[in-house]
Write a structure and sequence with these properties.
This protein has about 280 residues and is an alpha+beta fold. The chain has eight helices and nine strands. Strand 5 (about 160-165) and strand 6 (about 170) form a beta hairpin.
Length: about 280
């Protein structure tokens, strides 16, 4: 583990005394400006901000110079995943821990050597909060059943999006995948926090090698761990992997609706042939 040279999160800065005139009046400095004088007390702050505090670490996957996780042997990949978990446990007080892997320049990687990044954040991102709420609502509606656990049972039963299964985890192309060959690693035993579990490394390795075999070389991709936020009562960790095979264009960016030109059922069938 090394500190990130260009951290997105950092230690809190000392509070600045007072405020600048611009913080009070924006670009308006004349008291005669009708927009400035029309301000009313109790208005919402339209341009609020907060410091990006927290920790941002780089976790080196191997001393060998390889550029993709698919090139690691089983022991190296298991050690890399164990390191992810060790560093996540070192930031237990964070509101949320985000572990990511970017492979390839098109996926946002700035270093060639394979590595992961860990963000320890003082807030829960909106997407994670929504998942936490869905999981909790499903548990209340079903007298305590786990949403992802039930999804997993159904995916194994149907088999059409199932790629591989071992004693610890299942690999699927998830329903309504957002992009071609999107993959999800889900532990068979329901555990909320990735950092407190020990399973899944072998299935992550399987996912990486299947993608490399399917495309003839490791594709550029993004991987992220979805673990339980601090104090979440119900959750089920999973690891998502998204190869960078297409580009989001104006429709996707403008609407938030993804277009997937390769159905997950077809992607799963292709990957099963590579087993």
């Amino acid at each position: 583990m090394v500190p990130n040279l260009y951290p997105a999160l950092g230690a809190p800065e000392a509070a600045r005394p007072g405020g600048s005139p611009e913080s009070e009046a924006g670009s308006f400095s004349s008291s005669g400006d009708p927009l400035l004088t029309s301000r009313r007390s109790g208005e919402p702050d339209l341009f609020s901000a907060r410091p990006a505090t927290g920790a941002h670490e780089v976790l080196i996957s191997s001393p060998r110079h390889v550029t993709a996780m698919a090139e690691l042997d089983d022991a190296e990949l298991a050690d890399a995943v164990a390191t992810w978990r060790e560093r996540m446990r070192a930031h237990r007080d964070a509101s949320y821990l985000q572990l990511i892997v970017n492979e390839g320049g098109g996926a946002g990687a700035s270093l060639e050597h394979t590595h992961a990044q860990l963000y320890a954040m003082p807030f829960v991102p909106a997407a994670v909060a929504r998942e936490r709420e869905r999981v909790g609502a499903y548990g209340e509606r079903t007298a305590g059943a786990g949403l992802l656990a039930d999804v997993l049972v159904e995916e194994v039963r149907r088999k059409s999006r199932l790629v591989a299964i071992d004693d610890e985890a299942v690999l699927i192309c998830p329903w309504a995948s957002r992009s071609p060959f999107e993959l999800r690693v889900v532990p068979r035993r329901e555990v909320g926090r990735f950092e407190e579990d020990t399973s899944g490394a072998a299935m992550i390795a399987t996912a990486m090698r299947l993608l490399a075999k399917r495309f003839g070389a490791p594709p550029e991709l993004n991987l992220w761990v979805r673990t339980a936020p601090k104090d979440a009562e119900m959750f089920h960790w999973h690891v998502d992997i998204a190869p960078r095979l297409t580009i989001k264009a104006g429709f996707e960016l403008g609407t938030g609706v993804d277009i997937n030109i390769y159905p997950p059922e077809l992607a799963a069938a292709d990957l099963r042939e590579c087993l």
